Amino acid sequence: MPGILKAARVLLFIIAGLQILAALALFFAGLAVQSGSVDAADIEDLSAPVLFLIATSGLVLAAAAIVIAARFRSGRGGVRAGAIAIGTLVAVNGLVNLFTGGGFAGPSIALGCVVLVNCLRKPANDYFNRPRTTTP
Q1: Does some domain include residue 136?
Q2: What SS3 state is found at 43?
């Protein structure tokens, strides 16, 4: 596996970890709003179900990133396309976060762009399109 793909794989695991942490924070924020201990105006008028939905989507993205990163070694079944899709989603999410005034947009944009660029380079294309031998 080329070094750029090893880096993309590690970054996918980092993205998954950060998504899990963010999802947990949103889940606990939703619980706080639902119990009434925090006013919804403190977190930009988001209701508890919206926070739970955002947290769930973050967990789904984290699970997808873990599965894609784990399948990098075999290089089959759309692994490259999945990594490109995850990198794009993370980068676009960071851009939306940046333009809406949210914090921590920079790391999302950087991680997503590095995964995207590494998976689009020629060595990545050669690795994922290599001939595969079958064992009898």
Answers
A1: no
A2: helix
What's the CA gap between 101 and 92, in Å, rounded?
14
Whether 15 contacts 90, CB under 8 Å: yes
Task: Say whether pTM exceeds 0.70.
Answer: yes
Identify whether 31 is part of a domain: yes
How many whole angstroms separate alpha carbon 65 and alpha carbon 14? 9
Q: What is the pLDDT of residues 42-66, one digit of tens each?
A: 566 677 788 888 889 999 999 999 9
User: Is 135 a member of any domain?
Assistant: no
Q: Residue 136 has what DSSP assignment?
A: -
Collapse the DSSP code of 17 into the 3-class scheme (helix H, G, I; strand E, B; otherwise coil) and give the result. helix
Report yes or no on 62 lying in a domain: yes
Task: Tell me what pLDDT residue 60 has.
Answer: 95
Range of the domain at 120: 3-126
User: Residue written as tokens 């989507």?
Assistant: 57
What CA–CA distance (Å, rounded) separates 68 from 19? 15
